[in-house]
Amino acid sequence: MSNQPVQDFAIYTEGLTRTYGEIEALVDLDLSVPYGSIFGYLGRNGAGKTTTIRLLTGLARPTRGKAWIDGHEISTNSQKSKSITGYLPQEPGLYGWMKGREFLAYIASLFTIPTNEIKHQVAKVLEITNLEEAGNRRISGYSGGMKQRLAIAQALIGNPSILILDEPTSSLDPAGRQEVLDTLAGMRGEVTVFLSSHILGDVERVCDTIAVLHEGRLVLVSGKEQLLEEYPVNAASLTLETAPPQAFLDELENSTWVERIMLSDQKLSILARHVPQGKAELLPLVVKHGVQVDKYEWVRPTLEDIFLEVSK
Hints:
By secondary structure, this protein is of the alpha/beta class. Helices cover 35% and strands 29% of the residues.
């Protein structure tokens, strides 16, 4: 855990634990979320992600441990922490018979926002979520992605500095997911986004810091780029101009560093059991046999590869 004070982080937890009888939903969570980051909180279903969010939003109390939002301890100053936190549940409630702008004005009226400020607030969050034109249409006519962006707009009412999202893209088609991810990416550096999800591709696309929760315990926290660089790159990919000579394939297959080779059309993939040796020997072997190569690269693992490795 960092020795920096809790005020240095948008979200900070220390030994945060929640049990239900003998069930340990969350155990000794030590977490520090930097200001302005898009923080991906990953875990399989049942890993404890929603429990964490319920604790951070004050909807549940910890069995032990503490949590701070923007330097304010949740248990002792929950109203202050709530006022600076926007929350989007997994299944947000939207009123289909209302127009988008009308719905947001209604939500704003529930806050201590002066009446003359509501119109400005609504216009601002519609712009952030790219819903200005749709704001005058009934919500029932929105696509799935538009409804989720409206739910994000709702969470942004009141100018929260921290946005906590529980599986915001889980029920969307690829187009809808992209709409939501683009909206979140546009907030980078302006709002701290805590994004809980089990959709690894979405997290890899938009998040800059990633934590992995497994069976209620935190097993990994890292910057995305550092994380992808830390794990071994164990596959080479070659795009070939022509079919490679059989002698090349035979010598490659018999090399001690090669685990397996796969040739499909003009694409050759080589799984290595010893990467440094492979990097030293592959290109000389290509030159020796006169193999014509269009593209050569060592492929780094995806976030999914790493997630499956650390959450076994």
